[in-house]
Amino acid sequence: xxxxxxxxxALAILVTLALAAGAAHAQPAARTEKVVVAxxxxxxxxxxxxxxxxxxxxxxxxxVELQRxxxxxxxxGFLAQGQVDVGAIGLAGGIFNAFNxxxxxxxxxxxxxxxxxxxxxxxxxxxxxxxxELKSVADLRxxxxxxAGGTGSAGSYLVDAALRTVGLTIKDxxxxxxxxxxxxxxxxxxxxxxxxxxxxxxxxxxTEGWAAPLLENFEPGAATTVxxxxxxxxxERPAVAERFTVALMQGARAMQGALLTSEKSLAIWTKYTGxxxxxxxxxxxxxxxxDLDIARDNIARQERSHREAGFTDYQTPVPVERMIxxxxxxxxxxxxxxxxx
Length: 341
Description:
The protein is of the alpha/beta class. It has helices at about 1-25, 45-55, 55-60, 70-80, 95-100, 125-130, 155-165, 185-190, 200-205, 230-235, 240-255, 265-275, 275-280, 295-310, 325-335, and strands spanning about 35-40, 60-70, 85-90, 105-110, 120-125, 145, 175, 195, 210-215, 225-230. The strands form 2 sheets. The protein has a 5-stranded mixed sheet with strand order 2-1-3-10-4, sandwiched between helices.
């Protein structure tokens, strides 16, 4: 009896070990996957930085390799060829051209959206404002307006949207391509009549007395920054793309409300953007969707604005559905559930 019991126990152990070995063979241990991300180092992409430094990418078995780019247009070719997996970039005329040509890439989520209040301003040169030559954006017809990236950039869309409120368009001004950081000194030296600037450059130009706001808190809901996935990533490594999206969503949820300006978060933002913690803390925050919502209507509006301004090389509208892919966001929502504050 004892011998029979011993044999049964031994047999049970062998069966258990065999099943465990089979399970291990059927489900190999996950390995770390590298995802190459082209990014413009701005607070617009804080979700990405949160996902990395809060450990969510590592939890999903992803090693992020960041490649800094000057603009979204610079990254488009690399995305289309699959040399870059993800673009954390601003939308521009060149990107809409790429969609029209059928480049293999899709918008998977918006990175950030302007709220009802924000710190991006259209500034007028101080002496021209003081003299009354510039009272509002309606007085910019024929004037030199500095915009980062020049015509066809995300900034040009924003200026065009502002001008349209007074019956003008971007075609009615002289666009000067200039870096954000150079706008204050250009206004000081009267090289510009006006300029578009954000944190911390708009505040600097105003406090130093080189400029005065012509328009503030315009175009609420503007969503010019996105996360673009390459077709290669989505088709050849869909599971990695899904895990990357889960990490992004976790990153977004870890920075809602007061968490956005916690000591830990401020250190992360400064690490990636170079902007001082006190400047970030005193700035009006962008809106970061905890569910990575895609602002379809605003993306369509941007496409139309660039097309009508002549910043694209086509005339027939590109449907929003050709530019976006909701599937990865939906899969991340299915895993994490809708956000609950």
